[in-house]
Request: fold
Amino acid sequence: MRFILILISGLLFVPLTSCDFNAKKVDTSKLSLDSLIVLYPDSVELLVKKGNQLMEKVQYQEALEVAARAYRLDSLKFDTRVLYAEALINKPSRTADDMLRGHLMYKALVKANPKSEKALVGFANTYTMLEDMDNSFLYINKALRINPRYRDAYILKGTNYRLKQNLDLAISSYETAVQIDPKCTTAYLSLAVLYELNGKPDVAMEKYTTAYQLEPRNTEVIYALAFAKENNGKTNEALSLYRRMAKVDSTYADAYFHIARIYQFDKPQLDSAIIYYKKAIKANQEHIPSYHNLGLIYEEKNDITNALFTYAKVLKIDPDYVLTKERVAILKNKR
Reply:
């Protein structure tokens, strides 16, 4: 997940940048950000707000598209450059070249504005990604000297301590982040994971639940809570959450996969499991775990032909998938 998040401010009135300057200002208090962008597609201010919003929701590809558009319109504006640098280093298919470009962009931003806590923490984040914790902490602390209550600095600090296996200091940093911003979903999710590792499942579940209450339509948040419920044996509650995930995003293959998995191993209701594994495969035709588990069901039904046919699909995607190779070898030895 993303190391740092950008805090979004409220939007009441928006200057009509790059629009008709002779037009009267419009009361935008009742319009959504998306509606405003439709009205004023070349407003850099609106695009930056939208990009930051998408970064906050961990929608990196969409954020990069918006950031690139804003950057093309105004590559000199400081906030635009910060957004583009952040989107670049968090893009789903990030390359080493993207990482280097982002690092150099942040370096220039810090030089241009050494008092910007956002740029300083962004620069620190690139050092974290490069596994240079000393320099990461150096720039985090510079940001905190400017703004001792800068939430993102504590989130990145927590990430660094987590990577250094110092769970107590990681928890302390994330707890500080949620004290500063009680609506910081990612910090709650990070705390939940850490409390699980510290053997405190009840506290972990409380953090997962808080994150869900804050963002009940965020599929990543729903998944985190559902998976925690599943691991704690609360399969009916998990099923309900996975179904909600699928309703929010019908292309989310993992939602169908986990529903199928519960029907296969916990209920068991194999015919229902088959239906949901096929839904997962329809959503993602390279979803290897769904193919493999579907093969297991065919084996259990003594339908060896379909089992081998399904396993063949796994090995076509990944010839080295060990679990499937083992099952194929066993079935062939039985013949």
Remarks:
- The longest helix spans residues 96-112.
- DSSP finds 18 helices and no strands in the chain.
- The CA atoms of residues 239 and 259 lie 6 Å apart.
